[in-house]
Prior knowledge:
2 copies of one chain form a homodimer.
Chain A: E1 5-6, H1 8-15, H2 19-28, E2 35-36, E3 42-45, H3 46-60, H4 65-75, H5 82-120, H6 127-133
Antiparallel strand pairs in A: 1-3, 2-3
Chain A binds a DNA duplex (30 and 30 nucleotides) through residues 7-9, 18-21, 23-24, 28, 37-42, 59, 64-66.
Amino acid sequence: MCEQKYKTGELVALAEIGKETLRFYEKKGLLPKPSRTAGGYRIYTEKDLRRLLFIKNAKKLGLSLKEIGELLAIADGELVDCAEVRHIAQKRLDIINEQIDNLGKLKTILIDLINQCSKTNTINSCPIIDSLSKGVKK
Amino acid sequence: MCEQKYKTGELVALAEIGKETLRFYEKKGLLPKPSRTAGGYRIYTEKDLRRLLFIKNAKKLGLSLKEIGELLAIADGELVDCAEVRHIAQKRLDIINEQIDNLGKLKTILIDLINQCSKTNTINSCPIIDSLSKGVKK
DNA sequence: TAACTCCCTGTATTATACTACAGGGTTCCG
DNA sequence: CGGAACCCTGTAGTATAATACAGGGAGTTA
């Protein structure tokens, strides 16, 4: 029966974020407006902590706050249209595949550069500039 | 003997960027200050076009303008210290590997979500929230 | 009750990468 | 020479994601 309650300082310590960031997320609508003490202090629950950790992890995976907001809206049941969900997820998936592809190309270019560099020890012609001037598909 | 010369409008048309972006890059030091006509109009050369295309392609690969600037400095011979070059390249390579790794994880999560969605057609429990609340390594 | 820590609000600043004016000067065509 | 199209400068605004700070209130403990 005794659910854990946190004040701002306790929550930010547990989630390892700044207190300004917490308020920022609240203002952005990513976190619900918490209840308050008589003195006006915010009171958070376990649910808020989980939500905050979700935001943190999703960010780590490269999602923008806007996208995270959309996913949270789905989780909250505000957005129950399946087509909508699929659309968000698929759109992101396309971008991810493209990014993985691009990162692979950049990786090759950088490995070439590093090798080139260790061979000559001076750079007269630049392998990256050459590679990238020719263009990257898409 | 007749090298191609471009005015701002011609160059931005060829590179497919905005004219303000061109000035922005000049101010940032990514493009050298071009020579001018008697009337003060900027005159660009083929070399500038190649440089601009390099910036565009490097951006597509996810490099920041700051990193692009460092690579251009290398290409310009301003930075000929091999250790420095290797350092920039290796640092980026580490980030890339991590990003590829993270994107792969996100991809799995999203594919799960899409599948879940097409099975149930309604979302009662949210697979992404569940996945991400548990955390992502590193 | 003083002192101290924590919390409140609102506003301003940071960094990245542009994008959009306002108010002029230049070039070129007829 | 008139007018359109183009270019110049400087400043301001946009979006994203925070981060910092000023000025004040709340809660706790000696």
